[in-house]
Amino acid sequence: MIAATDLTKTYTFHKQQAGLGGAIKSLVRRTYETRLAVDSITFSINRGEVVGLLGPNGAGKTTTLKMLSGLLYVTSGELEVLGFTPSGRKHDYLRRIALVMGQKTMLWWDVPAMESLLLHKEMYGLSTQEFDRNVAELAELLDVQDLLNVQVRKVSLGERMKLELMAALVHGPEILFLDEPTIGLDVVAKARVRTFLAEVNQRRGTTILVTSHDMDDIEALCSRVMIIDHGRLQYDGGLDELVHTARPRKLVQATYATNVDSSHLDGVEGVTAVDSSGQRIKLEVDRERAGEVLEQLTRIGPLVDLDVADADIEEIMRDLFLRRSMPGDAS
Ligand SMILES: Nc1ncnc2c1ncn2[C@@H]1O[C@H](COP(=O)(O)OP(=O)(O)OP(=O)(O)O)[C@@H](O)[C@H]1O
């Protein structure tokens, strides 16, 4: 469905010094700079997949989404989406995709969202029947029936994001490109957006490529992630595999009814770190040894709570990006 080979984007822009002097100078003599934003990345995405595009600020995620949706020309490499070259911006192509940017709006601010939806109906040539069916289904899923006739400027950020998603999906696109869809939303609104996206993927088979700095979004939606950093694709694979490879350990926390002595765990095979105080023991244990160690923990004292978790994906990301940004570190 999406195939990118050695996809590269270089921006050329002119530098201007601040102030009037700088503006005049730049009129007379312009100095240009180039920035390699996406550096020869190759990937493919199949129909129905939900893929997370992760990376630190400035990694090239938005640039990639803009190339995929045809907003930017590719500097070099090959890009084919649904059999089209996206930058051609053919109507038949735009009819089959949608791009939602969390920080930008595609709704008219001064009129109710329904006006924007009706414009989309005309732009995409939807029949009244198809339009009504889609509006009814999406409004119900997003619980926005009461908001469709309210001026967009009067709705909250979370409500606006729901309406943005509705506007993006009303023409029934096969691919949805999402750039930070939950940015600035509260926890309840975030959860609602995630549930909605998962439902759209399941019900309609919509392929989704999503960027987010919120790892809860990624964990809730994506089984596959692509990590991009300094424009290079650093990882493309399962989220679980990433967690297992980057941190092949389980984090265990045991709470006891009385103070306990953690020295029983000294030298136990598979235990890599122990931190204990009073009634609590926290430890890291090799995945394969977790069963035996848990059994041991039950024998140390009267257990009241036991929590076993994978390493936090947020921590893994932080480690990955910090390591790569260290000067002189070629890894
Ligand atoms: N129009 C532009 N002109 C020049 N450079 C740009 C332009 N847009 C983006 N860049 C640069 O390209 C690089 C990649 O930017 P991009 O917006 O794709 O990153 P991102 O991964 O989406 O970051 P963020 O997480 O902060 O949104 C950055 O160094 C950015 O400064």
From TrEMBL:
<keyword id="KW-0813">Transport</keyword>
<dbReference type="GO" id="GO:0016887">
    <property type="term" value="F:ATP hydrolysis activity"/>
</dbReference>
<dbReference type="GO" id="GO:0005886">
    <property type="term" value="C:plasma membrane"/>
</dbReference>
<dbReference type="Pfam" id="PF00005">
    <property type="entry name" value="ABC_tran"/>
</dbReference>
<dbReference type="InterPro" id="IPR027417">
    <property type="entry name" value="P-loop_NTPase"/>
</dbReference>
<dbReference type="InterPro" id="IPR003439">
    <property type="entry name" value="ABC_transporter-like_ATP-bd"/>
</dbReference>
<keyword id="KW-0547">Nucleotide-binding</keyword>
<keyword id="KW-0067">ATP-binding</keyword>
<dbReference type="GO" id="GO:0005524">
    <property type="term" value="F:ATP binding"/>
</dbReference>
<feature type="domain" description="ABC transporter">
    <location>
        <begin position="22"/>
        <end position="255"/>
    </location>
</feature>
<dbReference type="InterPro" id="IPR050763">
    <property type="entry name" value="ABC_transporter_ATP-binding"/>
</dbReference>
<protein>
    <submittedName>
        <fullName>ABC-2 type transport system ATP-binding protein</fullName>
    </submittedName>
</protein>
<keyword id="KW-0046">Antibiotic resistance</keyword>
<dbReference type="GO" id="GO:0046677">
    <property type="term" value="P:response to antibiotic"/>
</dbReference>
<dbReference type="InterPro" id="IPR003593">
    <property type="entry name" value="AAA+_ATPase"/>
</dbReference>
